[in-house]
Amino acid sequence: MEELAQLRQTETDRIEAEYQRRLVLIREFTRDGSDAERQAIENLDAWKTQQNNELTTKEKDAVQARYKAEIDYFSNLESLGVSSYDALKASMEEYYAWAQQNLPEKEQQLIQAQIAGADARHAKLLQERQDEERAKLQELQDIRDEFHSRDLDNSGDSYGKQLLEVDKYYEKMKAKL
C-alpha cells in the first residue's frame, strides 16, 4: 500500500508539473482575458481532471488486484489443506471494507457473497474433518471391542461377552440418534 501511495504521489506531482508548464505556455502565448486563453485554460483543466481520474482508476484497479491476489493465495493454501482460513477471512473483510468506500454497490454485494461462500466452505470442511475423526475413532473402538471380545472368548467369560455386545448395541443406537 505504501508503494501505491508513493506511486500516486509521484504521478500527481508529474500531472501538476505538466499542468503548470502548460499553463505558463498558455499565458505566455495568449492575451490576458482573451477567449483563446479562457478556452485553453478550460481545456487544460479538463485534461488535468481526466489525468487525475485515470490515476484514481489505475489506483483502484491496483488495490483491487492486490486484494484479489491475496485472497486467491489464501484460498489456494486452504484448498491444499493448509489452515489459512483466519488469514483468508481477515483479508476478505479488509477487502470488503475497502470496497464499501471505493466500489459500486453491485461489486460490494459480490464480495459479500464471496465471504459467505468462504464461510460455508470452511464450515463444510470443518464438518468433514470432524466426521473423518469420528469415523477413525469408531474404527479404533470397534477394533478394541473385537480384541476384548476375543479375550473374553479365550477366558471363557461368555457373560462378560454378552454384556459387551449389549453395550455396543446401545452405543450404536445412541450414535444413530
Structural notes for this entry:
With 177 residues, the protein is an all-alpha fold. The chain folds into 2 domains: 2-103; 105-177. Helices cover 91% and strands 0% of the residues. It contains 5 helices and no strands.
Compose a concise summary of this entry.
This protein is mainly α.
Helix and strand arrangement:
Blueprint: H1 2-29, H2 35-79, H3 85-102, H4 105-155, H5 158-176
Helix pairs in contact: 1-2, 2-3, 3-4, 4-5
- What is the strand tally? 0
Number of helices: 5
SSE class: mainly alpha
Estimated helix fraction: over 70%
User: Residue ranges: pLDDT <50 for 5 or more in a row?
Assistant: none
Topology pattern, helix = H, strand = E: HHHHH
Summed up, the domain count is: 2
Largest sheet: none
* Shape annotation: rod-shaped
Defining traits:
177 residues; mainly alpha; 91% helix; rod-shaped
